[in-house]
Amino acid sequence: MSDKAIGVDLGGTNLRVALVEVDGTEARILDQRRQLLQERSPHAVAQVLVQLCHDLDAAGAAPVGIGAAAMLHGTKGMVANAPNLGWRDVDFGALVAKDLGRPVSLENDLSAITWGEHRFGAARGFDDVICVFVGTGVGGGAVLCGELYRGAGNAALEIGHLKVHPGGRLCGCGQRGCLEAYAGGRALAELAREAPESLWLEIAGGDAEALHGGHLDQAAQRGDARAKEVVGRASIFLGQALASVATLFNPSCLLLGGTVWQGCAFLREEATRTLKELLPLPAAGWMQCVEATLEDDAGVLGAADLALAHRAAARGDHKHRR
Amino acid sequence: MSDKAIGVDLGGTNLRVALVEVDGTEARILDQRRQLLQERSPHAVAQVLVQLCHDLDAAGAAPVGIGAAAMLHGTKGMVANAPNLGWRDVDFGALVAKDLGRPVSLENDLSAITWGEHRFGAARGFDDVICVFVGTGVGGGAVLCGELYRGAGNAALEIGHLKVHPGGRLCGCGQRGCLEAYAGGRALAELAREAPESLWLEIAGGDAEALHGGHLDQAAQRGDARAKEVVGRASIFLGQALASVATLFNPSCLLLGGTVWQGCAFLREEATRTLKELLPLPAAGWMQCVEATLEDDAGVLGAADLALAHRAAARGDHKHRR
What class, spelled out in words, does domain A3-114+295-314 have in CATH? Predict the structure, then answer.
């Protein structure tokens, strides 16, 4: 039996709202809206979001699930920190629910992506999934025993803030030596700009402002010694972090994705090599590495399905998903 | 309503079998037997175990749960590897069940300890518990969302084999740079013996064979530079590993114990300092560090309670525990 829900992907600059039809382990986007966020106050964003929900579902029958690029406080829709939106301690879930006239579910974006890939994508059929996304930052999500695992304070799988080199490079979080300060897209772009007289600047067409991790990675692929050093270090730290995650969670599926992961072949290969080298045998024997397949859709599909799950739980029907 | 079960602690040299009465969140040992393992073949150990079960529970009414110092294969009682017993790929669960005439449950010893402390000890009342024990080796267990988490292949929380110093000291597992190769009691004893002309040898009463981590730690406490270096390095690696675990799991409770943890004040303080330094703020805000309180009883109490849980699950009664 198919069911409909609205999945929302709330990023730092963009809002995407999709009407999703879920049928067993299949989901498809029936209609969607994208909006650049002009005014980023919580009230303004909530208003836009609610308007788009009305556009897609005039009857207001579909439950709404949001995946937000934010650190959540507990599991009740409170945003503790959304750096790209400039929000701190905002009860965004309540704000949207009030405007919308019904409850909404709010999840961390990586949790929504992990759930989407677990239900409808590359991690389908796996009950213990760890997802690691290497994009501008580095983040993760977990499905354990078939359920989304969020941690006691909704802060689990902060893999970007594993200390891979204690005392090392300063991270955006204020601490030093975080994985994200080496292997995230923002960090790689910074590292690229630190030495602009290089092959990678040539690859970027001479535009230092446009430099990103992909240019560095291409330079490394072409054998440039400095690029190999910078991307190589990032890859080793990433591979170590992946090995740590796999050693601790013993997942059946390690799901990897994100723009940097997908766009940087040198980094991907070196990180995979390090992961294989460092992974204990028992964990290795149970684990399959897969690449994310739903791309940008994973978040809205996951958020929509989680909204259905929340509604079912509220109704006392725990079997809706399988 | 109270219920009875037999909890078994199967170590490398000793077998302990306890008749346990469980009443809500309280448990007590009614009677118990300890036996030094003379013959360590699986058949011989199973026979001794079954005999002790008969001694304690002639009627054979109490379900039997075993916590074993072993890597298990899946969750059906198959021992993949028990290095201290010299077992590989032994279906010990089936062996005991056959001799006993009824099913038994088999768990990794650290899982049994974690469950015991969660149900009856220092971690009572916490739903997301990560337990780390620093003894001869370094191991861990997890209770997530109130349930024991074992990983896809029963190999989760292998914290002793986190690579804290890739390419470093050789570990008993065959890989290099594992936490256990620095912070475990066996490693500390080896490190102590590498430089016997030292303050710690004096502390050990001049007996190089008797040297253990505690002697090194005492020398470090007295300010001995070399001891501080060796124990300090172990502590930093341990603190880093604890920070990684807390960053990834975001537990409400980090439960710490084990002979080395309890007996080595220098290591404990330095590791705690490193943990606090490296832990991301969100995870830190939700986490309480507690010391294990049940000592040697945690394993048999946990194994006994898990046996009751298994019986209840087999009967379709999922509510027995709360």
Answer: alpha beta
